[in-house]
Design a protein that fits this description.
The protein is α/β, with parallel strands linked by helices. The protein contains ten helices and ten strands.
Length: 301
């Protein structure tokens, strides 16, 4: 991967002692550091061949909510030319490192949501909000254009291409709202809040149920019985689960859904292996549409 040379500006590239750029030996080059592979993928779509992108967390084995930053990860963040993170408390460990380094250029995805809604902080899983992802891509392009003006046109063209892809997926989300109006689902976690909002689906899961699952505790017997009844009576068209936070209660709910013939759709919060951000979002929406289509004629809402 080619790396951009920054005249007069020195940034560290983690794990590298010498790089060649701009036709001559250059000991340092710009690096974009992302808190997760999700935001790393968005950044890579913008940087193209010009800049290295390093995600701190990749895969499904680590929960970004509870991760404890290592010294090497902290060094990667403080040495980066640009840091892209989720914000909103989702990856608080990044914010803690950045708190002592106000000079680091950053892109905080959560900040694009604006202020609180009636005093309630917005849902932090903003990577399922395609408008936020577009804002992140465009802002990365603007930041890099300032750092590396020689490649500004490429960064902005790449961001525009990313946004076109995001718009196509958003169109599919909105089509769900018109094709399946007032359709009910059960979502075991708030991770899909923005997907459900965009697609107009009605989440009938009790808030206390999703909160318990997100916090790794068992839902109350009453909430569990309520959700099981929705599934067993086929009052919902799909069950949306995050396979990265499996619990006995959720496993039991999935078994009940399969017995009742309610489709189960997986919604992850990190990238499946071998995919990029847009492919991940497209596949998630396509799987949800397939679930709704298969159940449409059999479920009352």
């Amino acid at each position: 991967m080619a790396l951009v040379c920054l005249s007069g500006i020195v940034f560290s590239l983690i794990g590298s002692t010498a790089l060649t750029g701009c036709g001559s030996a250059h000991p340092h080059a710009a690096t974009v550091v992302a808190s997760t592979d999700v935001w790393g993928s968005v950044a890579s779509a913008v940087t193209g061949r010009h800049v290295s992108v390093k995600p701190i967390l990749s895969g499904a084995n680590v929960d970004p909510h509870t991760y404890q930053v290592s010294p090497s990860d902290a060094a990667a963040i403080t040495d980066a030319a640009l840091v892209v993170y989720n914000g909103g408390g989702y990856d608080r460990w990044v914010e803690q490192v950045l708190a002592g380094h106000a000079d680091i250029k950053t892109v905080d995805a959560y900040s694009f949501l604006g202020t609180t809604n009636n005093g309630v902080p917005p849902n932090e899983h903003v990577f399922y909000d395609l408008s936020v992802a577009k804002s992140v891509a465009n802002t990365i392009a603007d930041r890099l254009a300032t750092i590396d003006p020689g490649n500004a046109a490429d960064y902005r063209a790449n961001a525009a291409g990313f946004c076109r892809g995001a718009d196509a997926i958003a169109g599919s989300e909105h089509a769900i709202a018109s094709t399946y109006p007032n359709t009910s689902v059960v979502a075991t976690e708030p991770v899909v809040y923005y997907l459900l909002q965009a697609s107009g689906l009605v989440n009938r899961t009790p808030a206390a149920f999703t909160s318990a699952n997100e916090n790794g505790t068992d839902p109350s017997p009453a909430d569990m019985a309520y959700v099981l009844n929705l599934v067993n009576q086929r009052q919902v068209s799909a069950l949306l689960v995050n396979p990265q936070t499996s619990t006995p209660a959720i496993d039991g709910l999935q078994h009940a859904a399969r017995r009742a013939g309610v489709p189960v759709t997986e919604v992850t919060e990190t990238l499946p292996t071998g995919t990029d951000y847009l492919t991940w979002q497209r596949n998630t929406v396509d799987q949800l549409v397939a679930a709704l289509r298969s159940n449409r004629t059999n479920v009352g809402n």
